[in-house]
C-alpha cells in the first residue's frame, strides 16, 4: 500500500535522512522515500500506517511530525492590538 504524508519540521538534507531512518523502523513499512521540497514521505507498507505510528517514530528522531489540515489553516487572532 502506498501512503504519502506531509512532514513538518524538516529543514535540510540531514533532516530528510533522519526522517527516512525513523520511518523505516515502523513495523510493516517496506520502503520509505522522503523529500524536503515538498516536505513529505512516501511510505510503502503492507497495511495503512496511522499518523500516531508515524509521529511516534518521528518524535524519536527529532522535532518532526505529520502535518495535518489544521496546521495549514490560518491561525485566529487572540485579540492583539493589531486585530
Automatic annotation (TrEMBL):
Which residue range or ranges hold the HMA domain? 1-67
Pfam assignment, any one: HMA
Q: Which SUPFAM superfamilies match?
A: HMA, heavy metal-associated domain
MF terms in GO = metal ion binding
Quote the InterPro entries the UniProt record gives.
Heavy-metal-associated_CS (IPR017969), HMA_dom (IPR006121), HMA_dom_sf (IPR036163)
Its domain of life reads Bacteria
Q: By what name is this protein known?
A: Cu2+-exporting ATPase/copper chaperone
The entry's keywords: Metal-binding
Quick check: keyword Signal in the entry? no
Which species is listed as the source?
A: Kaistella chaponensis
Amino acid at each position: 500500500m502506498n501512503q504519502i504524508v506531509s512532514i513538518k519540521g524538516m529543514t535540510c538534507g540531514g533532516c530528510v535522512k533522519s526522517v527516512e531512518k525513523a520511518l523505516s523502523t515502523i513495523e510493516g513499512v517496506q520502503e520509505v522515500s522522503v523529500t524536503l521540497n515538498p516536505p513529505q514521505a512516501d511510505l510503502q507498507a503492507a497495511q495503512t500506517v496511522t499518523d500516531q505510528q508515524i509521529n511516534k517514530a518521528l518524535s524519536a528522531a527529532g522535532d518532526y511530525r505529520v502535518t495535518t489540515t489544521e496546521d495549514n489553516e490560518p491561525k485566529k487572532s487572540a485579540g492583539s492590538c493589531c486585530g
